[in-house]
Specification:
Helix content is 25%, strand content 23%. The protein is α/β, with parallel strands linked by helices. It has a single domain (40-284), classed as Spore Coat Polysaccharide Biosynthesis Protein SpsA, Chain A (Alpha-Beta Complex). The strands form five sheets. It has an eight-stranded mixed sheet with strand order 3-16-12-15-11-4-9-10. Strands 1-2 form a two-stranded antiparallel sheet. Helix 1 (73-84) packs across helix 5 (150-163). The longest helix is centred in the middle third of the chain and has 14 residues, at 150-163.
């Protein structure tokens, strides 16, 4: 354990170097780990895939079925989850044109249905009946992130379990918002207090100009203590620019309670999202991350 007030570092040399910072009301948690190991337990993984592909000119397709390098986008994150070993059968949250997603993925995954697109927290809540009680932890991914690697997911899950945090966020720090990093501009910004502890995530639409210049962004990959998640997800309000129930608001609830929140830093090139036709064309011309 670290001494009072010290920073904690978790080194995962087998896959990537990360900085993990846990915050508690008393003593921070700290570990040194030489190798990322396979999990000795399976963790339910929820993949959000209920949205439309309107901004990519595919108005008839669910967004996750938009083709990226000759495969539906959702195939990449599912393959990474499966290869990581964290979960043998993810739960995919479907909504718009769900029959098309079911046709493509068939029995490879379990399905939860979000009847109305009311936000990411509502989407996660729709999977509760399937995953609750399976584990003390829950992982949440977005179905439109084709770049994250299996090794990163395994390291992320291990870091969450080792830290004992209530929430672990995958974050990245970008040098700018140009070129392939342009997609990161519209990601939520990580907000820390003077001690460096995470206090909230502010979505781009709700951020002022100064906060939008911040370089640390939320990459939309989460790990939760499952009992805490299910006891708090119903407390989220839709008082934001989008008028949606957002999973990011759980971070503010956790910070207000003074429970542990951890940040797991991942390479920026694994965080690129695809939210428009222009981003799809740009990233189609880039190599997948090594």
């Amino acid at each position: 354990m670290t001494t009072e007030g010290s920073k904690e570092v978790l080194t995962l040399r087998s896959f990537l170097c990360i900085l993990i910072r846990s915050q508690t009301t008393k003593n921070p948690l700290g570990f040194i780990m030489e190798d990322a190991q396979m999990l000795d337990q399976k963790i339910p993984a929820i993949v959000l895939a209920a949205g439309r592909g309107t901004r990519m000119m595919h108005t008839e397709l669910p967004k996750v079925l938009v083709e990226f390098r000759e495969r539906p986008m959702v195939e990449y994150i599912l393959q990474a989850i499966e290869k990581s070993g964290v979960c043998s059968k993810p739960v995919v949250v479907v909504g718009y044109r769900q029959e098309l997603i079911r046709e493509v993925l068939a029995g490879r995954v379990d399905y939860a249905v979000q009847m109305e697109q009311r936000g990411t927290a509502d989407a996660v809540a729709s999977a509760r009946a399937i995953v609750e009680g399976q584990s003390e932890h829950v992982l949440v991914f977005y179905g439109d992130n084709p770049f994250v690697r299996a090794e990163t997911i395994a390291a992320f899950a291990n870091a969450h379990i080792q830290s004992g945090a209530i929430i672990t966020l995958a974050v990245t720090t970008t040098q700018d918002y140009n070129g392939p990093r342009a997609s990161l501009e519209y990601y939520g910004r990580i907000v820390r207090d003077k001690k460096g502890d995470i206090v909230r995530i502010t979505e781009y639409k709700d951020a002022d100009d100064q906060l939008r210049q911040s370089s640390e962004v939320n990459t939309m990959m989460y790990a939760f203590n499952a009992p805490w998640l299910w006891s708090h997800i119903g407390k989220i309000q839709n008082s934001n620019a989008q008028q949606e129930y957002l999973i990011t608001d759980l971070v503010g609830l956790a910070a207000a309670e003074g429970v542990a929140i951890a940040a797991f830093s991942i390479p920026t090139k694994e965080c690129y999202g695809i939210n428009s036709k222009e981003e799809l064309e740009l990233l189609n011309n880039r190599d997948m991350p090594a």
